[in-house]
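Help wanted!
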Amino acid sequence: MNSTNSRQDNHDTTAIIQASLKKRYAREKRFQWYGRIAVLMGFVFLFILLADIVIKGSPAFTQHYIQIPVHLEAEQLGVDPGSGSEALYSADYQGAIKSSLRDLFPDVSGRKQKRLLYKLISAGAEYDLRDMVIANPELIGTRTDLWLRAHSEAGSYLKGQALADTPESERRVKDLQIGWLDSLREQGRTQTRFNTTFFTQGDSREPELAGIKAALYGSFFTLLVTFFLAFPIGVFAAIYLEEFAPRNRLTDVIEININNLAAVPSIVFGLLGLAVFINFFELPRSAPLVGGIVLSLMTLPTIIITSRAAIQSVSPSIREAALGVGASKLQTVFHHVLPVAMPGILTGSIIGMAQALGESAPLLMIGMVAFIMDVPGGVTDPATVLPVQIFLWADSPERGFTEKTSAAIMVLMGFLIVMNALAIYLRKRFELK
Amino acid sequence: MQTTTVFLVLLALSAVGFALGRRRSQQLAAAGPGMRGLHSLPKHYGYMAALWAGLPALFLLVLWMAFESRVLHDLIVAELPQQVQVLPDSELGLYYNQIVSHAGGGSSAAQLDEAQQLAAQRYQGLVHTSSLLKAAMVALVAVIGGLLALQRIAPALRARNHVENIFKWGLFACSFIAVLTTLGIVLSVLFEAMRFFQSIPLTDFLFGLQWSPQMAIRADQVAASGSFGFVPLLVGTLLISAVAMLIAVPMGLMSAIYLSEYASRRFRAITKPVLEVLAGVPTVVYGFFAALTVAPFIRQLGESIGLSVASESALAAGIVMGIMIIPFVMSLSDDIINAVPDSMREASLGMGATMSETIRKVLLPAALPGIVGGILLAVSRAIGETMIVVMAAGLSAKLTINPLEAVTTITVQIVTLLVGDQEFDSPKTLAAFALGLVLFFVTLLLNVAALYVVRKYREQYE
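Answered by r_m:
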């Protein structure tokens, strides 16, 4: 009686389990899929982010030029044929370009149409022309076909970005200009070149004249200061904490401070820089010197923490061997421990430098947001850095700056990838040992 | 003389000290007990002489540079006419700056009165004297220090210990910079915030529901007197952080679970670094992405289903911030899930539980405190994040919890208050420091809490 009952029970339980197993396996499958979807979404986000920037940024590496027959009449330029380069320097090239454009399109009339016509050519073309004439003064008095830099709006039409089917009022390139550009293109008077300006010039109000050279130099000087402050101080601090610090209150306070500083928002370091270095010590505003100091305080915790880990992982036998043959503690550390730990320390420092290179918030606080056309020549000149240049361009309404922003991001990301690859390479080598 | 020249001279003197110290120890050894009789290597005696020559003089140089401008200011001001001396501080400062810029060749004499031109000449003279005096004093201290050290060199002198002690103090000073930085942050933010609270009561700041920091420039202006209620900023910050957490926590946690429990070793080795690229992207890039791609996309999406979405919606900034934090949550939860002992996993699996049941009913409850700690750290990251919200969130402080509207955050306000005009005494700029104070303490609190929770949790399984 009892046994049949329990067999019955067993049978029931098995049936129940059989029935629930299906559900449980389905749930298991579902759960796995949640995980897969989460990972996949991460990939998708990264892909969209990178693709968006590359698509927006790659047109910035090309620049359109328009070929125009330019008459360089000495009279109109306001110079004598035989005059020196100083007179040539201040001659009226803009007038020459404008009259040449009018000659090319003789049926243009009225101020408004003329202004549209002039806007085909960049405001910087007159300087290009000036340099051409100074290099080759025989051009004066001749009528030559010259390639002139296109205005960014005209360039964006030629790149196929400004579509003709949007209403004219919402377009920057007007119907008239499109007609002119189309006819120029049919005559073979337009050309695409690699945009060298982007790498050889500073900031500008005109998108087609703006470049990242000043920002690159600013970043370089800032990182230079950061490295020369943060690297030695960070490594020395790590050595002290790992090898010399006694176990006491003060050491605890230092360690807690370092861990907390690693999590302080970067903008707070900017407030520190503003209040202490600029207002109290009266260091120059907008200078890579102050930017570098602030960023070095910010990256110090990263460098200290990774250097400590690297020093910690050096095998004690090396220390004991050095101490055993009579080296002092300091000699042991500097002659034996540090060289072994160096790859690890360098890895951490490079990662810290990469952080500093991409950082912009604290630099806004200390005035590195200025409009910088000139390449800074030292650590006390006003400068801006690449991420801040990106921030400034992202704020500009002109379409031309959107692609410049994305292109600058591509350059910045390129640097970051190189730095991180270097760090990974060093880590790999370190692990092999 | 230029400070850099003085510094280079100082370096040269130190080098001479090194050479002399080393030679003297060698001479002493040769004359008396021989090389074995020296306590330390000759170079240690050299280092000692170099440090004695260099350090005190360097200290003097730094002090001189720190106080030079202040002393000059006092000397010049003391000689100015009586009616100028009684001017209020700001006018006196302007007056003095004109003198200095004229002395430096900055401005023409026409703009200055006679007393200023005299003072400028005097200033030039003083600067000249000061730089000569500085060079002479530094050199003198360096020579005296070096000679004293050379005098002390004897075979029995424990030069190595002496030098190493100085080095150890140097190492300590380097690690103490962390403490000084924290102190600097707290003091600078606290000091300016106190000045802010002198003009705006603390209760108005903490409980006010209005934030419009535009102050009337003149007393008779009709413009709003400026209100500094901090609540809308806090709500805006928390709203954007909440959106970010809604994205980052499930995705980060699920990715971590999948990668550590299900994925093959190879898949994990490839996937993890790729996802960590998201953490290495500079925040200004995310800001650009949020403002120019995500925000218009969300706006169009909202319009197509009949919702009105602000062009600087909290949603856009929050989503992008969430994407940024995914790898952060992922690697923290990964560490914590891996720290759960395998015996617990095996016990559950051995009882016939499926992997997902083991994860949900055994691993996650066991790892919960650690995960909570990780989330707290992620929240503190989100609250302190600046560039994304500066570029993609709004400027006007609206008290709302609707993520489709534009809100502003603490960090956005700090940036807008401090970038551009730099009048340092108005409550407007000081308000930025009060906000900085709040930001610092909120993030500090979250970090301390998170570290405490994580540490407690680790102890549980160690």
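OP: Thanks! One thing I noticed: The CA atoms of residues 73 and 96 of chain B lie 8 Å apart.
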